[in-house]
Design brief:
32% of the residues lie in helices and 18% in strands. With 341 residues, it is of the alpha/beta class. It has ten helices and 15 strands. Strands 2-3-7-4-6-5-9-10-11 form a nine-stranded mixed β-sheet, sandwiched between helices. Strands 12-15-13-14 form a four-stranded parallel β-sheet. Helix 7 links the parallel strand 10 and strand 11 (218-219). It folds into two domains: 2-233, DHBP synthase (Alpha-Beta Complex), CATH 3.90.870; 243-340, Rossmann fold (3-Layer(aba) Sandwich). It binds threonylcarbamoyladenylate and magnesium ion. Residues 148-149, 157, 232 line the site of magnesium ion (MG).
């Protein structure tokens, strides 16, 4: 059932559902989450079950923004044992917003959400409907809300309430907060290794993080310690049913020319390019689709575009390789994973 997130009564019902230990489809500025009370291991177990996600893959716990003069939200102290200085700088710079920090976990807190690890992923989102739910839930004794993206394990993340309903059916309560502004999941920085380590690129870029914390951001490949299990960082992820391939504009045109001469026997192909395309296709089975030419717009549209092209029943989705520029890293990352499936 989809309820309007602008309705205060719907927000109250959502918070009450969380306090009861039920699941909730929750809008955030990045993607919609499948939410449950992070303080209840049985509620969190339902998330893993509904998603078909292995229960040792850690989830992100969402906390309400800080009140008054405080810089660090109260929920952080609830779930994290310590906050290193550079992590606090990142909190001041980017929260509420699309950044997740991995922090040392407070003993006994959020064990199921953390997938058994001794760290916890915390995020303070900015979406007004999400913030209203988190505040209301805190009043009911729910101090953190575990929420992975609201999609079946390995599939494309949802950026509208309707996407969530199509993944989990009508029985799930979903708050509609409109289409997500950011469109790809939060940037994740591991703050448990003494230096900041980028685990997942997102809308907040490397450069912005380095500037805010005043030190270089490492990549996880620079680090000796093994990575924690992390499904958003698996090689093959975010996959539609059709096979995704990345190609340059020149490769796309070459492939189109080949298809043209095979008319009649060609498989259904959807081709997604940035901005208006000069591509020419002779096959009626080829669908050309223009995506936004700016990194922010492309991120916002990415998952909805993949879902839409997939729903046309094509066997192949050929996507133009995104630009190399730093602000395209999140989109590049998601497309490479979609293509690896
Ligand atoms: O934008 C987002 O972050 C969305 C929205 C709903 O907030 N949430 C999201 O959650 O993407 P999820 O559960 O799909 O992403 C969880 C990822 C894991 O795959 C892992 O990469 C990282 O967060 N993570 C969470 N807790 C961790 C931990 N304790 N140690 C290492 N990585 C962790
Ligand atoms: Mg996910």
């Amino acid at each position: 059932m989809i309820l309007d997130g602008a309705d205060p009564l719907a927000v109250l019902r959502a918070a009450q559902a969380l306090a009861r230990g039920d699941l909730l489809g929750l809008p955030t500025e990045t993607v919609y989450g499948l939410a449950a009370d992070a303080g209840s291991d049985t509620a969190v177990a339902q998330i893993f079950k509904a998603k078909g996600r292995p229960s040792d893959h850690p989830l992100i716990v969402h906390v309400a923004p800080a009140e008054g003069d405080a810089a660090v939200p109260a929920g952080v102290g609830h779930y994290a044992a310590t906050v290193p200085g550079f992590a606090e700088k990142l909190i001041r710079a980017f929260w509420p917003g699309p950044l997740t920090l991995i922090l040392p976990r407070r003993a006994g807190m959020g064990a199921a959400a953390a997938g058994g690890q001794d760290s916890i992923g915390l995020r303070c989102p900015s979406h007004p409907v999400c913030v209203a739910v988190l505040r209301q839930a805190a009043d009911l004794g729910v101090f953190g809300v575990a929420a992975p993206s609201a999609n079946q394990f390995g599939r494309v993340s949802p950026t509208t309430a309707a996407h969530v309903a199509s993944e989990f059916g009508d029985a799930l309560l979903v708050l509609d907060g409109g289409p997500c502004e950011v469109g790809i999941e939060s940037t994740i920085v591991d703050c448990t290794r003494g230096v900041p380590v980028l685990l997942r690129p997102g809308a907040i870029t490397r450069g912005q993080i380095e500037q805010a914390c005043g030190q270089p951001l490492r990549g996880k490949d620079d680090m000796a310690a093994p990575d924690p299990r992390a499904s958003g960082t698996l090689e093959a992820h975010y996959a539609p049913t059709a096979k995704v391939r990345l190609m340059t504009a020149a490769e796309l045109q070459k492939a189109l020319d080949l298809l043209g001469s095979e008319a009649g026997r060609t498989p259904g192909v959807a081709i997604a390019v940035y901005a208006r395309s000069a591509l020419v296709s002779l096959s009626p089975k080829v669908m050309l689709h223009a995506m936004p030419a700016d990194a922010e717009g492309a991120a916002r549209q990415l998952f909805a575009d993949l879902r839409e092209l997939d729903s046309c029943g094509v066997q192949l989705i050929w996507v133009e390789t995104p630009p190399e520029a730093a602000d395209w890293e999140g989109v590049r990352d998601r497309l490479q994973r979609a293509a690896a499936a």
